[in-house]
User: Which sequence fits this backbone?
């Protein structure tokens, strides 16, 4: 009979299954459904009574010489007995092989048999395994490739889920056992509480039909001594949070839930265990989506771990950089990938939050537009057209659980808005081009801020809530998500070209001043821009804003042959 794990280069070719000599023996015992014949007790010594099946008088006499000995001593006695009987072929030879050790001990572990509680998980039930694999296929994975880890775990299971633990603390197994006349538990007749009695602590509570004084007494009862494994209780987090058994209305409204966020290393434990419990109890998935994160890495690119003393608590970071800044760093970690712990990213996030405060303070300081005013200027409409595209991209990214991409796109536009658009349009916003021009700029700026604050709200909730309260009612986190169509209507058919061209020209003017070591507020005597006919026409529509932002006294526009916009500056 061929079996996996056997070494064909070792021994005679026969396989000995010695329950429970090692983990391989345990696997074969379980797969072949062999009888259980333990000889080692919980104290690590050979049991006094021989195992079932040892009926030969000579064999029982030999076993009696081993009873009470440690495993090491028993092994030595067996060698001596074989030698004395003349049945020892040669002398024992020491071998070196891998054995399991207790992490704080100096001797190998011995496997002993105990009564334990299990939950069926497909390890020994083909139909249940296939059903749980199908649940994995029904689940929307973000990222999708993480489903392979789930399937690998489920298909590799060889046994059921052991949920009992012999610890002092934990959720107790809610079961009692009757005691016979010798005060020995009758395990095959457990006393189960009615569901209405739950939760039950069998170490304190009394089962129906008994009195407390009968605990531990002959013909009385005893509570199960085990507690549940951590995963056995945390696998019910959706049900517990949803009010299962205590608020049926809430539970039916929220279960199954929408999303489980978690890290990749506990797919096999928390995620799978939760799916198992929901499948067995409710015949459904516990949630529709799962978002799988990576680890946080230390500067050496290794996992930050509490057990290794590498973890950093967030309290000091929150005090130093602010909550929004820490959330900004966290949002930089894409699903399915590890993220480096980086205070530099937190500084960037803090700078972004401060800029959001300042630019909103500036725009609101310009004053409100005339009631009913519309966006009429090409530059303003162009900015809104770009913003509409950003809303489309950010919304699609969030719908696809690519939150990092949504933040990146919103942030890219925000800095362009601050560095280019605000500088180009602020003269009109001040009213230097008349009321109609000011109304167009102020209306566009207000709409852009309203949209951008909502785009940033999931990532920077505190600064956006603060700024929103300056000029809007209610919480930004209850406000409607912006729609690109609404923003696009204000753009009135203009695309992003006017803003792009104006930004390119103003960048060239800034560069000329920088190379001349002049202030950005220095006056420019003249600027010449050469572009093709189409771009030249676009530039004329925003020329006043370019001149105001660059402090250009004279701006000449010539028609060129190429598609590039070429700017020459005379200081």
Assistant:
């Amino acid at each position: 009979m061929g079996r996996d794990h056997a070494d064909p280069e070792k021994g005679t070719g026969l396989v000995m299954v010695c329950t429970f000599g090692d983990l391989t023996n345990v696997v074969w015992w379980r797969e072949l459904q062999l009888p259980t014949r333990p000889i080692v007790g919980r104290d690590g010594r050979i049991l006094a009574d021989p195992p079932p099946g040892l009926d030969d008088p000579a064999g029982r006499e030999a076993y009696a010489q081993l009873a009470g000995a440690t495993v090491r001593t028993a092994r030595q006695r067996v060698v001596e007995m074989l030698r004395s009987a003349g049945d020892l072929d040669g002398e024992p030879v020491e071998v070196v092989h891998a054995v399991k050790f207790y992490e704080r001990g100096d001797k190998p572990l011995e496997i002993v048999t105990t009564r334990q509680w299990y939950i069926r998980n497909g390890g020994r039930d083909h139909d249940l395994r296939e059903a749980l694999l199908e649940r994995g296929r029904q689940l929307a994975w973000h990222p999708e490739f993480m489903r392979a880890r789930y399937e690998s775990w489920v298909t590799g299971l060889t046994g059921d889920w052991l949920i009992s633990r012999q610890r002092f603390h934990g959720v107790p197994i809610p079961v009692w056992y009757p005691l016979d006349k010798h005060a020995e538990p009758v395990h095959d007749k457990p006393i189960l509480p009615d569901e209405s009695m739950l939760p039950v602590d069998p170490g304190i509570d009394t089962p129906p039909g008994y009195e407390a004084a009968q605990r531990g007494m002959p013909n009385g009862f005893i509570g199960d001594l085990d507690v549940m494994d951590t995963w056995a209780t945390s696998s019910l987090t959706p049900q517990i949070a949803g009010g299962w058994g205590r608020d049926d209305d809430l539970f039916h409204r929220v279960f199954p839930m929408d999303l489980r966020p978690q890290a990749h290393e506990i797919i096999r434990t928390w995620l799978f265990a939760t799916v198992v419990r929901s499948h067995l109890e409710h015949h459904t998935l516990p949630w529709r989506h799962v978002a799988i994160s990576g680890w946080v890495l230390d500067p050496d690119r290794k996992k930050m771990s509490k057990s290794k003393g590498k973890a950093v608590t967030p309290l000091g970071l929150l005090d130093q950089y602010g909550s929004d800044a820490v959330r900004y760093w966290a949002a930089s970690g894409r699903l399915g990938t590890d993220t480096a712990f980086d205070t530099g990213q937190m500084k960037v996030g803090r700078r972004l939050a401060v800029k959001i405060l300042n630019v909103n303070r500036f725009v609101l300081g310009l004053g409100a537009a005339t009631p009913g005013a519309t966006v009429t200027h090409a530059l303003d409409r162009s900015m809104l057209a770009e913003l509409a595209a950003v809303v489309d991209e950010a919304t699609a990214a969030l719908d696809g659980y690519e939150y990092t991409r949504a933040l990146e796109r919103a942030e890219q536009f925000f800095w362009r808005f601050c560095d280019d658009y605000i500088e180009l349009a602020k003269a009109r916003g001040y009213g230097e081009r008349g009321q109609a021009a000011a109304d167009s700029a102020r209306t566009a700026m207000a709409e852009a801020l309203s949209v951008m604050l909502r785009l940033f709200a999931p990532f920077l909730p505190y600064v956006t809530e603060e700024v929103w309260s300056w000029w809007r009612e209610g919480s930004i986190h209850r406000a409607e998500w912006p729609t690109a169509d609404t923003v696009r209507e204000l753009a009135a058919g203009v695309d992003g070209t006017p803003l792009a061209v104006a930004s390119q020209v103003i960048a060239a003017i800034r560069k000329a001043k920088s190379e001349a070591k002049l202030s950005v507020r220095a006056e420019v005597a003249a600027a010449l821009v050469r572009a093709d006919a189409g771009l030249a026409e676009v530039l004329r529509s925003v020329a006043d804003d370019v001149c105001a932002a660059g402090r250009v006294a004279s701006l000449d526009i010539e028609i060129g042959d190429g598609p590039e916009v070429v700017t020459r500056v005379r200081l």
Summary: The mean pLDDT is 90. Residues 403-429 form the longest helix (27 residues).
